[in-house]
Amino acid sequence: MLSRRQLGLLFGGGAAVIIGGASFGVVAKSVQHARTEAATAFGSVRLLRAARLARLSADGSPSPLVGRVALARMSGQPVTAAGAGIGVAVPAAAAGHGGHGGAIPGLRWPQPENHTWGDVILVELEVTNTGTEHVPFSPGQLRLRPAAGGFSTSLQDADRDAGALVPGRPERLWVSFLAPETAGRFLVEFTDPLQDTTVDLHVPDLVTVLERS
Questions:
Q1: Contact 47, 163 (CB under 8 A)
Q2: How far apart are CA 47 and CA 56, in angstroms?
Q3: How far apart, in whole angstroms, are the C-alpha atoms of residue 50 and residue 173?
């Protein structure tokens, strides 16, 4: 039986999930921290790469840098969106990241007027169901937290709803979170409701993706 908290995590995306007759087996409770991959009740979750983006364009409108558009630019693919070119992807370490507006010294993103955070952390990850039955998964099981400490935050967006993971087939997806500009490194908390455990995964080195007008 799943607890109310476990069901909330799985159904948080609003999509119905049928567990069926899946057999989840026994997974060791000793979880290794400070890494980018972890074992789960259904298989594994692995963080692949991450980017830091501006939430708003220079004119205050929502930035076209979202999801697959930003990931494509990170891979060097030519991309255009909403009439704007998507600028170069800059490794945060090479740019002298100080936690201010995405790694470029002196750069400050436009900040929302409602005083919410203006930085977006985009994470691409891979989840794998190594069993023989479909199992439930929700992006809502992931939360972002500054590595230096503080509260974790729920996701802003994802390219997947809550739903079953197909057995034996790795699935890639992206999730995004709003983040404070003063934080330079982050952890992703993954909560496995089937085990009722949480593990911290270190977000890979951030690449800053800039919008070119």
A1: no
A2: 25
A3: 12
Structural contact between residues 92 and 17, judged by C-beta atoms closer than 8 angstroms: no
Q: How many residues does the chain have?
A: 213
> How far apart are the C-alpha atoms of 117 and 207, rounded to whole Å?
18
| Exposure string over 99-128, b if 16+ CB within 10 A, otherwise e | bbbbbbeeeebbbeeeeebbbbbbbbbebb
Token readout for 4 is: 């109310």
On average, the pLDDT of the chain sits at: 73
211: Cα separation from own chain's centroid? 20
* Residue 205 vs residues 16, 41, 93, 151: alpha-carbon distances, Å: 34, 27, 8, 21
Least confident of 77-81, 138-142, 171-175: 77-81
